[in-house]
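Postdoc handover notes: sequence design on the structure in folder B. Input tokens:
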């Protein structure tokens, strides 16, 4: 299918971008002209998911090609070393690719390159790095920002909090924004630092639209007077606990603040889309656009007040459903694909495009090959710890600490307004049986005597990851 020998590869990761937030996906408000244009020449996977919807666990699957059961990251836990023997950047480096990453990595230690030849780092605000210290050696962007705006300048100067849903414009010049910095450093690589005798694997990893919502004023003004679509609210949500961010990141409580937060999120999307256009332009100017494979995706979604939830870590579409646009080197197929794909599939897919052998230990599968039947996802988060199964048409959810089960018909009810668990017991039993198969033998002890066990203690990181 891929006709260009050893094509260049550009991987674009946007942190916390929902699958439905594109003009080409039918969103009535969001403006994403660059990605809409890219979608026209891409394979558009409409049922792409993150199995473990938070930053570290999602990226573990992406970089290793492993399921969460194997890479071991089933919740959010900082400070656990990344010692994986097989990673996507290492495979491509070993195959002769020039490998370079700009932006967010969210690995440990923070300077672990996981196989990239070079990393220009900006992870955003990481509590385990920033609490009690602000060393610039942990963040290349922060050092650059202070050279530009003085020794006390910080990307926290908006006063919004790293996981907050308040909104205000970026306080410095637009080109100093972290989103612009990622694009600028990638463009510099494409123009000035790539080895033209070898193909490249370039990763542009944007922290936005992850909070804080601090785009330049121009992008906020795009959404000032737009009528927003109604927020989906299912009656079932009232019994499920809500995510509570830290004290530096207050959650909006009034309708006006919620409205402003949604507009701020959409503005961040348009800002990232605008900067991706700079990358596309650089590829065209360098006469390598046609020979470059481009994959755009996010690590997970954002609930954005759907059913009164924010952030991620939940099993619902806003949290788990991600964009996945794959432009292959010309000539190549385009159009929508409805097969279920997941972040672990990135490694084998890009290796196939590059002509690189995939180690037998990799559990993902190329999205260019046979589809999987369904996906098992999960996330540890105290009382809202859960497991879920989906084939893109139906979703079964089990909350492991309470035993609550849910069932949604995603074809008829894509916003998950109606919980069918009580009215379709046969389908619930089908999902439960599949989940028992998935969880049998897990170290947490979720299954005993062929039945699910409620209330089992669940670590954020399994022993497999602790062993590396």
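Designed sequence:
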């Amino acid at each position: 299918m891929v006709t260009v020998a050893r094509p260049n590869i550009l991987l674009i990761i946007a942190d916390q971008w929902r699958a439905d937030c594109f003009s080409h996906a039918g969103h009535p408000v969001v403006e994403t002209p660059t990605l809409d244009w890219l979608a026209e020449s891409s394979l558009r996977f409409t049922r792409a998911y993150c199995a473990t919807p938070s930053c570290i666990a999602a990226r573990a699957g992406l970089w290793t090609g492993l399921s969460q059961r194997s890479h071991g990251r089933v919740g959010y836990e900082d400070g656990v070393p990344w010692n994986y023997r097989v990673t996507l950047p290492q495979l491509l480096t070993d195959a002769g690719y020039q490998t370079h990453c700009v932006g967010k990595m969210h690995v440990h230690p923070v300077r672990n390159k996981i196989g990239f030849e070079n990393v220009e780092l900006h992870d955003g605000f990481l509590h385990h790095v920033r609490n009690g210290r602000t060393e610039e050696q942990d963040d290349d962007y922060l050092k650059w920002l202070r050279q530009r705006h003085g020794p006390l300048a910080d990307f926290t100067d908006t006063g919004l909090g790293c996981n907050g849903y308040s909104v205000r414009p970026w306080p410095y010049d637009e080109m100093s924004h972290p989103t612009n910095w990622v694009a600028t450093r990638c463009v510099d690589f494409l123009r000035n630092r790539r080895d033209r005798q070898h193909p490249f694997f370039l990763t542009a990893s944007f922290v936005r639209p992850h909070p804080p919502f601090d785009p330049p004023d121009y992008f906020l003004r795009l959404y000032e007077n737009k009528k927003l679509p109604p927020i989906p609210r299912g009656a079932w949500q009232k019994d499920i606990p809500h995510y509570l961010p830290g004290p530096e990141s207050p959650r909006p409580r009034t309708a006006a603040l919620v409205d402003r937060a949604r507009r701020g999120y959409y503005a961040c999307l348009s800002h990232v889309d605008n900067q991706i256009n700079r990358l596309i332009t650089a590829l065209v100017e360098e006469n390598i656009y046609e020979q470059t494979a481009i994959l755009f995706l996010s690590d997970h979604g954002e609930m954005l007040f759907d059913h009164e939830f924010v952030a991620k870590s939940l099993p619902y579409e806003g949290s788990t459903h991600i964009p996945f646009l794959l432009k292959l080197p010309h000539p190549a197929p385009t159009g929508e694909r409805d097969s279920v794909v997941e972040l672990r599939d990135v490694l084998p897919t890009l290796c196939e495009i590059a002509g690189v052998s995939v180690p037998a230990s990799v559990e993902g599968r190329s999205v260019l090959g046979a589809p999987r039947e369904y996906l098992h996802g999960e996330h540890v988060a105290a009382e809202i710890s859960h497991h879920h199964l989906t084939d893109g048409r139906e979703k079964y959810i089990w909350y492991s600490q309470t035993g609550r089960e849910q069932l949604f018909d995603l074809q008829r009810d894509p916003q998950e307004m109606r919980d069918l668990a009580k009215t379709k017991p046969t389908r619930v039993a089908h999902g439960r049986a599949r989940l028992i198969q998935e969880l049998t033998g897990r170290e947490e002890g979720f299954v005993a005597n062929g039945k699910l066990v409620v209330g089992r203690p669940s670590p954020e990181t399994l022993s497999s990851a602790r062993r590396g």
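Context for whoever picks this up: The two ends are 35 Å apart (CA to CA). Don't rerun without checking with the PI first.
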